[in-house]
């Protein structure tokens, strides 16, 4: 008979191990440039999703809002990101990837993408979709 409590705890441990694995993978890919993992995550977000309100970046990549400003500052200083005011709402400022940031990501993102796809290579399309659905269900209370 299944001991649900034990299985829940084992599942939690499995999720934490998976998180650690992905963190190492991203760290390795980020280290090929002059960025840390958080900087890489912000640049990857801007590269793939376009300009983002700075106030929302932290929620998208799971960092504290106070850290978001610091990370965006560092990326601006490196020339990879620039701030753009919202023309309709002066309280909002967007972070936008620069041409230099795009050039960097054009160079390093394909390898990162390849690494991620390799991790999921042995999963069927149905398994990937089910994993995505279950993870969304798990995080619905954020």
Automatic annotation (TrEMBL):
<keyword id="KW-0804">Transcription</keyword>
<dbReference type="InterPro" id="IPR036390">
    <property type="entry name" value="WH_DNA-bd_sf"/>
</dbReference>
<dbReference type="GO" id="GO:0003700">
    <property type="term" value="F:DNA-binding transcription factor activity"/>
</dbReference>
<feature type="domain" description="HTH marR-type">
    <location>
        <begin position="5"/>
        <end position="140"/>
    </location>
</feature>
<dbReference type="GO" id="GO:0006950">
    <property type="term" value="P:response to stress"/>
</dbReference>
<dbReference type="InterPro" id="IPR036388">
    <property type="entry name" value="WH-like_DNA-bd_sf"/>
</dbReference>
<dbReference type="Pfam" id="PF01047">
    <property type="entry name" value="MarR"/>
</dbReference>
<keyword id="KW-0805">Transcription regulation</keyword>
<dbReference type="InterPro" id="IPR039422">
    <property type="entry name" value="MarR/SlyA-like"/>
</dbReference>
<dbReference type="InterPro" id="IPR000835">
    <property type="entry name" value="HTH_MarR-typ"/>
</dbReference>
<protein>
    <submittedName>
        <fullName>MarR family transcriptional regulator, 2-MHQ and catechol-resistance regulon repressor</fullName>
    </submittedName>
</protein>
